[in-house]
Amino acid sequence: MSAIAAVPWSAPASLAGVALPLFVVAAATLLMLMSGRLLTAIMAGLRGRVGSSKEARLPPGSFGWPLVGETLDFVSCAYSSRPEAFVEKRRLLYGSAVFRSHLFGSSTVVTSDAEVSRFVLQSDARAFVPWYPRSLTELMGKSSILLINGSLQRRVHGLVGAFFKSPQLKAQVTADMQRRLAPAIDAWRDLGPGARLRIQDHAKTIVFQILVRGLIGLEPGPEMQQLKQQFQEFIVGLMSLPIKLPGTRLYRSLQAKKRMARLIQRIIQEKRRRILDADRQREPPRDAIDVLISGGSDELTDELISDNMIDLMIPAEDSVPVLITLAIKYLSECPLALQQLEEENMQLKRRKTDMGEALQWTDYMSLSFTQHVITETLRMGNIISGIMRKAVRDIEVKGHLIPKGWCVFVYFRSVHLDDSLYDEPYRFNPWRWKEKDTSTSSFTPFGGGQRLCPGLDLARLEASIFLHHLVTSFSWVAKEDHIVNFPTVRLKRGMPIRITSKD
């Protein structure tokens, strides 16, 4: 459940529609080049090129066109049905899974080598620090868990990660999802046979409410609706032009964030007042704000907490709903997998019904084939296609030099679709995970190292619960839909299906 997966441009309906987004990217790149930070990165790249001793160890590659580098080619491929073509073409050309390029205003080493990728992910701030486009860093804020480093990052990540893994939160999320899904399923059933649903929309509505309650303790109601509206205004600015003038996309997103922060900081202040009550000090944390407030550090300010709560909402709008939607698409296209998933979940439902027991979070996570389906969906879907880091010193890995000041782009997608690592990588095959280890360097949908996504268990749990209740309540016929891979992964039409109740 990575907190960074969203960027704003709508994907074009046809090739003709690519022209405007590509122009926007080119303009954004040129504007970013004007900032001192990126000019410094470019100069560092030029120094790396002219140093003869370093040149021999730099990965092969090309810096492309002046100023824009190879950004336009990367974006053009990203809008296609095979975004990995950008890497594949250069991998064949240079004979290497590690090559140099120039992307989004920075000299960059791109890697689709699983071992190099793992090295970067496992490294700490003494080697690499996060790098994001300027508009994103403006919106995230300097105290975001995505940008902070060192002991503060480890503390925030550790506190949030431990809470997300706790049985207490998993039980709460399970109960909340069951409570939200029950009336939704009844409403869908009342629509009658052949009713049309857009799965992506329903998944977003349900998951957002559940995760926000787990983060800040907010219940559904007017404040939740207001927060969702402001969040949608905020999220579309994550990769906008870095101009903060009134009326611009970035300015409107920043204003939306300020409104969200005011609401969340009111909640934080109320919680701090409650903690001062001696009778309530021993209460277990009910949400992520409680966890950070009780973290025992003056560095965990109200501003830092509110900024990170907003960042952690991103998976609720993007990553987890898309995981659910993609799983339903792939299952619809693989009847044998859908049949086995349905049999496994029906067996669980009958067993728990016969015992007179409610389903617990451990029941959902014990469904082995369901977990294989989710794992295979993560591998094929590549909801997070990769991450970028910046080298803080010269780094050498597997004989390749990454000069200080350069970025390194760890491209998960090419690793997950590498035919030397996966047989028939473009075929949805959940059964491959019966024997394959998900902890290898060739499977990194949640990143790795100190910045491993803290919500990975929750993402699997929420997807498992949604799939269980859908397949045990309905059969369906999927309508044709297409995956859009850039700027965010999503289904173009929201994955429409026509359902028939099994009752």
Automatic annotation (TrEMBL):
<protein>
    <recommendedName>
        <fullName>Cytochrome P450 90D2</fullName>
    </recommendedName>
</protein>
<keyword id="KW-0349">Heme</keyword>
<dbReference type="GO" id="GO:0020037">
    <property type="term" value="F:heme binding"/>
</dbReference>
<dbReference type="GO" id="GO:0048366">
    <property type="term" value="P:leaf development"/>
</dbReference>
<keyword id="KW-0560">Oxidoreductase</keyword>
<dbReference type="GO" id="GO:0016132">
    <property type="term" value="P:brassinosteroid biosynthetic process"/>
</dbReference>
<dbReference type="GO" id="GO:0048441">
    <property type="term" value="P:petal development"/>
</dbReference>
<feature type="transmembrane region" description="Helical">
    <location>
        <begin position="12"/>
        <end position="33"/>
    </location>
</feature>
<dbReference type="GO" id="GO:0016020">
    <property type="term" value="C:membrane"/>
</dbReference>
<dbReference type="Pfam" id="PF00067">
    <property type="entry name" value="p450"/>
</dbReference>
<comment type="pathway">
    <text>Plant hormone biosynthesis; brassinosteroid biosynthesis.</text>
</comment>
<dbReference type="GO" id="GO:0048443">
    <property type="term" value="P:stamen development"/>
</dbReference>
<dbReference type="InterPro" id="IPR002401">
    <property type="entry name" value="Cyt_P450_E_grp-I"/>
</dbReference>
<dbReference type="GO" id="GO:0016709">
    <property type="term" value="F:oxidoreductase activity, acting on paired donors, with incorporation or reduction of molecular oxygen, NAD(P)H as one donor, and incorporation of one atom of oxygen"/>
</dbReference>
<keyword id="KW-0472">Membrane</keyword>
<keyword id="KW-1133">Transmembrane helix</keyword>
<keyword id="KW-0503">Monooxygenase</keyword>
<comment type="similarity">
    <text>Belongs to the cytochrome P450 family.</text>
</comment>
<dbReference type="GO" id="GO:0010268">
    <property type="term" value="P:brassinosteroid homeostasis"/>
</dbReference>
<dbReference type="InterPro" id="IPR001128">
    <property type="entry name" value="Cyt_P450"/>
</dbReference>
<comment type="pathway">
    <text>Steroid biosynthesis.</text>
</comment>
<dbReference type="InterPro" id="IPR017972">
    <property type="entry name" value="Cyt_P450_CS"/>
</dbReference>
<feature type="binding site" description="axial binding residue">
    <location>
        <position position="453"/>
    </location>
    <ligand>
        <name>heme</name>
    </ligand>
</feature>
<keyword id="KW-0479">Metal-binding</keyword>
<dbReference type="GO" id="GO:0005506">
    <property type="term" value="F:iron ion binding"/>
</dbReference>
<keyword id="KW-0812">Transmembrane</keyword>
<keyword id="KW-0408">Iron</keyword>
<dbReference type="GO" id="GO:0016125">
    <property type="term" value="P:sterol metabolic process"/>
</dbReference>
<dbReference type="InterPro" id="IPR036396">
    <property type="entry name" value="Cyt_P450_sf"/>
</dbReference>
